[in-house]
Amino acid sequence: MEKCNFCGNKNLKEAKVEYIYKYYNKIMIVENVPCEVCEFCGERYFKAEVLKKIEKDFFEINSDRKKPANVMSVPVEEYDLVI
Ligand SMILES: [Zn+2]
């Protein structure tokens, strides 16, 4: 990336971040995913091959063809707006 698509800032730095992949009611958290982060607005940019690998891992794990590195349970709450 030469500049951020959202804010136009040209300072993007390489980073490793946590990526949350959600598909219907299934969620996979992937640690240490390489990306570029905009130093101004925080927008994250992932390469297509990185996203493809995450998608592949997700479907392999959910069809028991691959074992995840770790498993955690996730509570789900709905924000309740009371006026
Ligand atoms: Zn930006």
Task: Furnish the topology, listing elements before pairings.
Elements lengths: L11 E12 L2 E13 L5 E2 L2 H15 L21
Antiparallel strand pairs: 1-2, 2-3
Zinc ion binds next to loops.
Summed up:
With 83 residues, the chain is an alpha+beta fold. It contains one helix and three strands; from the N terminus they run E-E-E-H.
Rg: 16 Å
Question: Unreliable runs, pLDDT <50, ≥5 residues?
Answer: none
Beta-strand share of residues: 25-35%
Query: How many E-type strands?
Result: 3
Termini distance? 44 Å
Strand order of the largest sheet: 1-2-3
Shape type: flat
Roughly what percent helix? 10-25%
Number of helices: 1
* Highest-level CATH class of the domain at 12-62: Alpha Beta
How would you describe the oligomerization state of the chains in this entry? single chain
Give the integer mean of the pLDDT values.
95
What structural category do the secondary elements indicate? alpha+beta
Describe this structure in words.
This protein is an alpha+beta fold. The chain has a domain at 12-62: Ubiquitin-like (UB roll) (Roll). It contains 1 helix and 3 strands; from the N terminus they run βββα. Strand 1 and strand 2 form a beta hairpin. Bound molecules: zinc ion. Zinc ion binds at residues 4, 6-7, 9, 38, 40-41, 43.
